[in-house]
Amino acid sequence: MSDTQEQDDKNTQKTMTAGRDLEAHVLTQAARKLAASLLQWQDDHDAGKENFLEALRNNQRLWAIFQSELANPDNPLPPEKKEDLLNLSLFVDKHTCELLENPDPEKIKILIALNMNIAAGLQGKESA
Questions:
Q1: pLDDT tens digit string along 53-67?
Q2: What pTM does this model have?
Q3: What's the topology of domain 14-122?
Q4: What backbone phi and psi angles, to 5 degrees, belong to 103?
């Protein structure tokens, strides 16, 4: 392998690692906002409900971005991983729509866990 190819491979690896770190960070932040909104709702149902709904919408937008990236033909992920993540994103969509129609603080926990587990996987850590 030439020095140029080796440097290109290193740069690609750094870019991919930085992308995974960013994705893990935004998933973690979204999970934290969901958890905070859950706690606020449990403390004060009326005041917390709007934050709960906003956290849900933000998480849904995040997953919509992931869907778009996964559908991009230039996405370097193997097809089976893309399919798995797209299926998860469809689950997030469905679950979020159900929660937006019928808010239930207990049902938000699955979205929190999902985000945290995907973030941990992106960082090469064991799921919580």
A1: 999 999 999 999 999
A2: 0.80
A3: Four Helix Bundle (Hemerythrin (Met), subunit A) (1.20.120)
A4: -55, 130
